[in-house]
Structure formats: structure tokens, C-alpha cells
Amino acid sequence: MPFATHLRRFLSYCLLAAPVLAHADAPPTPSLSAGTSTFLAKYVNAEGNVNYAAIKRNPLELKDLLRRVETFNAAAAKPAEREAFYLNAYNLLVIGEVVARYPLESVEKVPGFFDKNLVSVAGEKLTLNDLEAKKLRQPYADPRVHFALVCGAKGCPRLSRTAYAATQLDAQLTTQARKVLQDPTFIRVDNKARKVQLSQIFKWYEADFKASGKTGVAYVNQFREGKTIPATYAVDYYVYDWALNSQK
């Protein structure tokens, strides 16, 4: 067989094999949870504030995560996987909606931000309110989700820099509840005046907490680890701060 024929066959084999070899050598795509953790660690600080300006300048990482949120197969996922997914999806989608309109002073200045504007999640078009109520509050009936979901405002719980994962979800939700309910900016205890001011979250979602068997201070005290609030303290609610949870 002529040398030229051998050479042509060898080159043809190399062209066919190259994509297979390149695919074999490519690093595995991280899970959505792992990718979200990487993203949050990069753009969220210890105070839970988001660097929206930096994301706006470099949006590809967020866009990739939102594409994965849009195409996730929720029907095939186990309950804990779905819950972790929807928690992460809500927080990512809020960030995405803010970035799309940034600079922005407050999500309250966007008409229909929570109850009319549609987002793409697991093959569905939902409002953020529907995502919260129909995919998390109703099916799981776990008030701890209120401390994991962050609606883009300073009055919200501090956004975790770690995404939620199915294998650790219960422990993560408890850890997040402890952090939030011991945060003096979220639960404001005045021992001298013998009173406590709670977030309006406890007022707006009172039915959720009541269904768990405890409301208000009694619910909060489960997570305060030795810093329990006396039942005799007067209870009030401070005004929710809707200013954007952006880094300065």
C-alpha cells in the first residue's frame, strides 16, 4: 500500500479520535449545588451582601447557572434534591433579576418583581412568589426555608455563601436558622427594656410557623443555644428594610 494512503488513513483516524480523547480528558461538570457554592463564595461577602456590580460586568457564570436552573429535571429528583434545588434556584433567580436591572436601589421599585414577572425554573414559568409558595412552603411545610430564601433586601436573612445540597440539607437548614435567629440585626433583643423586636417575616408567615407547633419567640428560642428570650418580654416587629442587599 502506498505511503500516501497509509498517511491519509492515519490522519483520518486522528481526526475521528480527537473529539473522543478531548471529551475523555475534560474535567467533569460540577453539580448545580457545587457550582452555586463557587459562585456565592465569589460574589457574596460575610454580611450576606451581593456584589451585583461585579456580576453585571462578568455575567457568564450566573447565566450558566440560570440555564441549568431552567433545564433541571425536578420530576426525576428525590424530595431532598428538589427542595435543595428550589432553594438555590430562588436565590439565584433573585440575583439574576436584580443584575438584569442593575443599578437598582430596591427590588420594591420593580413593578411585579415577586408577583407578576415570570422566571424560568425546571421547565416552568413561575413568579418568585409561586416558586416560594408552591415549590417550597406548601410541599415541605418547614418554616426554616424562610431563613434560607433571600429576596434581595437588607431586611432578609443574610444570604449563605454556601449552596444547599440534598445530602446535607436538614443540617444546613438548622445551621442557617441558628445563624439568622442569633443575629442581633435580625432578632433585636433589648434586655433593659425587656422587649424583643422580630422580623416581619414572623408576622407575614405566621400560619407557617403556627403549623410547626411554635410561633414567634417560642419558635426563635429553639435555635438560640443558651440565649433564649424570656417569654415575659414584650414582642413587636421592626420595619422591613427593602434597600438592596448590595455590597458598597
From TrEMBL:
It comes from Hymenobacter antarcticus. The keyword S-adenosyl-L-methionine does not apply. This is DUF547 domain-containing protein. Residues 78-179 form the DUF547 domain. Keywords: Signal. Residues 1-24 form the signal peptide. Transmembrane segments: none annotated.
